[in-house]
Automatic annotation (TrEMBL):
Keywords: Ubl conjugation pathway. This is BTB/POZ domain-containing protein POB1. The lineage of its organism: Eukaryota, Viridiplantae, Streptophyta, Embryophyta, Tracheophyta. Residues 105-169 form the BTB domain. GO terms for biological process: response to red light. The keyword Cell membrane does not apply. It comes from Sesamum latifolium.
Length: 535
């Protein structure tokens, strides 16, 4: 009966909660002896007053957050032969020797156990006791651990007999979680994860979860814990402009969690790029180390194709990014921008489930991404493509606004704004308006011809709705139309509206400096440059 129960895949699971706690450390029900050699902790991992290792120093790089542990099957004749185990399941299976464990043993502990019960819960022990090697005939197992790991190891051994844990504080559960991963006790991994998920999340525990060893975080049982920690930190620092100092003080796992979020509230993707560089310069003052961490961990957090061309030019000259890598990133981003909008959406959808160097999904930007085509000859001209989702337009009612990123026409800095306008007419109370907000210095007035257009569902081609001119002589200026399409808001937003193609409103603004003012404008630009040089 014991053999049949032990071979079941459900041992330790809610479907088969077998309780052998009566047999734990009982010589009558044991066929092996566990000799635990307990050594002193290194100074950096001394337990705090609650009996847990220092949270700031906890990195679980080895056993239970410390350096290493080793496991040996010893006979009295072979009392010096050990099998060394370090760094997770791969090392456990490799059984690599190490000479680094030279701390003296301060005390020993003897535990009687059943090889059958341990093998039923742990593939590691199952292989150890059934591989036909000389060690399987030996009766004593020797395990050397650090003092602060003793309680966690006893918790794990008790779990394999009783399917429950007595200590349920976050730090205690995390230590057991790490040991359970090393000994491949998946039932204990699931149990610890479920208990941790029920506990309140805070800043410190979220960082502890994300700082677990990679082998632990890759486990399906632990993934919900990792996802919860990521979501907590992303929500905590959603507005990075408001919490910039706190974000810059986050450890690597924290900054990755925050900047990976689609819901990050930033003006543009350039703000994310700027935060990444500030964080890297603060935490990695040495250039080579900084370039390496930027390349391997941080660049993938930046959605370069959603940055405007002017910002991408800055990437090319950034000293913190390897020049060849910067060139490749900018080239790939420009290729993406050159694709038609429907092709961009297809590539974005394809990338959601892939692992690439950067993401294409738009965040909750305060200034929405645009595509800009600029010409210097035969006239100074900018053509701007501004796409809005129908759900975004729905949220504009009754008086909302949505802004584009900035673009330039000569020295003018411009952005587009789509807006739900209150007209105050009895049968025509609201409409969709589109405006150009212009700012910047100028040395000579210039006349600009602007054209506002959108694609229609019928032809899928751009149709010009408004054509006008404005004279720009410096300062701030607003031009546009309160009723872009000449229809009430209800008709604009209705199902079957001719202005949306697959629930996307495709807008285009074309701005051209008139030819008879080009020379004056260029002359003004030259005068301004000379004045700057003289200054």
């Amino acid at each position: 009966m014991v053999m049949e129960s032990g071979s079941s895949s459900g041992v330790g699971s809610p479907q088969c909660p077998l309780d052998f706690s009566f047999a734990f450390n009982n010589v009558l029900f044991s066929d092996r002896i566990l000799k635990i050699e307990i050594t002193d902790d290194p100074p950096e991992s001394r337990p705090d007053r609650d009996g847990h290792a220092n949270v700031e120093a906890r990195n679980w790089s080895g056993f239970g957050g410390k350096e290493t542990f080793f496991l040996g099957l010893l006979s009295e004749e072979m009392a010096t032969e050990v099998v060394y185990l370090s760094g997770g399941r791969e090392a456990a299976q490799g059984n690599e020797a190490s000479p680094s464990m030279d701390r003296s043993v301060v005390r020993e502990r003897i535990i009687y156990f059943s090889s059958l019960i341990l093998a039923a819960h742990s593939p590691f022990f199952h292989e150890l006791f059934s591989n036909g090697m000389r060690e399987t005939k030996q009766q004593q197992v020797t395990l050397s651990i650090q003092a602060s790991d003793e309680a966690s190891l006893m918790d794990l051994l008790n779990f394999m007999y009783s399917n429950t844990l007595t200590r349920t504080t976050p730090c205690a559960l995390l230590d057991v979680l790490v040991i359970a991963d090393k000994f491949q006790v998946d039932a204990c991994l699931r149990y610890c994860s479920q208990l941790l998920l029920k506990l309140p999340m805070d800043y410190e525990t979220a960082l502890l979860y994300l700082n677990l060893p990679p082998t632990v975080l890759m486990s399906d049982s632990v993934r919900p814990l990792k996802d919860g920690a990521n979501k907590f930190l992303a929500a905590q620092f959603k507005d990075i402009g408001r919490f910039q100092e706190e974000v810059l003080n986050l450890p690597l796992a924290g900054i990755e969690a925050v900047l990976s979020s689609d819901d990050l509230e930033v003006a543009t993707e350039y703000d994310v790029y700027d935060i990444v560089l500030k964080w890297a310069r603060k935490h990695y003052p040495e250039l080579e180390e900084r370039r390496e961490i930027v390349k391997t961990r941080l660049l993938r957090l930046i959605r370069f194709p959603l940055m405007i061309s002017g910002n991408l030019k800055e990437v090319l000259t950034c000293n913190d990014i390897d020049p060849q890598l910067a060139s490749r990133i900018v080239l790939e981003s420009l290729f993406f921008k050159a694709k038609a909008s429907h092709r961009q959406r297809y590539l974005t959808a394809e990338q959601v489930n892939s692992t690439t160097s950067y993401f294409l999904v738009e965040r909750a930007y305060k200034f929405r991404p645009i595509q800009v085509v600029e010409f210097e000859l035969p006239r100074i001209q900018s053509i701007v493509y501004f796409d809005l989702k129908k759900e975004e337009c729905l949220r504009l009612f009754p008086s909302g606004q949505v802004h584009s990123q900035f673009f330039h026409l000569g020295r003018q800095q411009i952005f587009l704004t789509g807006q739900c306008i209150t007209l105050g007419q009895h049968h025509f109370s609201h409409s969709f308006g589109l405006f150009l907000f212009i700012d910047g210095p100028t040395s000579a007035p210039c006349t600009v011809v602007y054209e506002l257009a959108s694609r229609t569902k019928h032809s899928e081609e751009f149709v010009t709705w408004w054509l006008g001119t404005y004279t720009f002589d410096g300062g701030k200026k607003t031009v546009g139309h309160r009723n872009m399409f000449g229809v009430p808001w209800t008709a604009f937003i209705a199902d079957g509206s001719p202005f949306f193609i697959n629930d996307i409103l495709h807008l285009r603004a074309e701005l051209t400096i008139e030819k008879d003012t080009d020379e004056d404008h260029l002359y003004g630009e030259l005068v301004s440059i000379l004045e700057d040089l003289d200054g």
